[in-house]
Amino acid sequence: MGYEVGKSILYQKTGLAKSLLALDLLSKNTGDRIQPISEYQEKFGVSRGTVQNAFTYLKECGAVVLEHHGHQGTYIEKLNYRKLQENCMRKELLGIMPLPYSLTYEGFATAIYSELDELNFNMAYARGAVGRIELVESGTYQFAICSRYAAEQSISSGKKIEIAFDFGHGSFLSKHVLLLADESKDGICDGMKVAYDSKSLDQSRITDNIVKGKKITLIPIRTQQTIGALIDGTIDAGVWNYDDVLENHHDRLKVVSLAETDYNYSFSTAVLVIKTGDEALKALLKKYISVERVLGILSEVREKRREPFF
After folding, report:
1. Confidence class of residue 1 from pLDDT cuts 50, 70 and 90?
2. CA gap 203, 103 in Å, rounded
3. How many helices (H) and strands (E) does the chain have?
4. Rounded distance, CA 52 to CA 78, Å?
5. Among 31, 80, 291, 302, which is most buried by a count of CB atoms within 10 Å?
6. Which residues contact 60 (CB under 8 A, 6 or more apart)?
């Protein structure tokens, strides 16, 4: 009985070490020198033999080919990233971003899929930064795309996330604008019904800014319902994505630019957030994702020089 229990514990430790080692190797490149076994021992909290068994397993299944150079150390001759991923506890990398209803979001999804093409990766789409960030914090998704404003507000409120990539001004959207159902109006007026989405940190904060001091009624609706609600008279005004206005015109509605005092660039800056302290994931993403390449693909999709895929 004691032998069987001991063997079970050994298998569990080897399995854990294999998973951790595979995750570590995912962030490596061919030609890299691997750490000494003793460093992996300390890093994973297992014995030398357990680390060696994990290496043996990954070599035998074709996930890694190593080349020994005597006192110079051991180097990576070949890596099979998909096989490495198959040996991780989480066999699929999962991200989440806004619904791709504009060319910018379509471009962003296209860019991320292109950057992570070597990996087993999937992207989900959901409205509201609040929900996306909570899904990263809970570990359901490994990363999320949101505005810099939403990320900073979440971090300041105690959410255990951090910004891994900042893609710069205009990368999330060109800007937000105010849409009005009555073309004779120039802004928010007393008595108006205004769209309010508490799940969207950007939309709700911008709305708070522009209705300050006005006697209005906030109407709780999803941001994506704004256009329909304006047309059918449910609301009189709502904050909206200017990229969609440029693409779809919405001729029946009046577009009003927002004052600088009500808006800042953090609302239009895209960032990629991960759970705080996940250094292995951060190293993996930094290996594959280049801000310059992402912005290049985003620009190509925006200018219709590249077909989006996601």
Report:
1. very low
2. 19
3. 12, 12
4. 18
5. 302
6. none
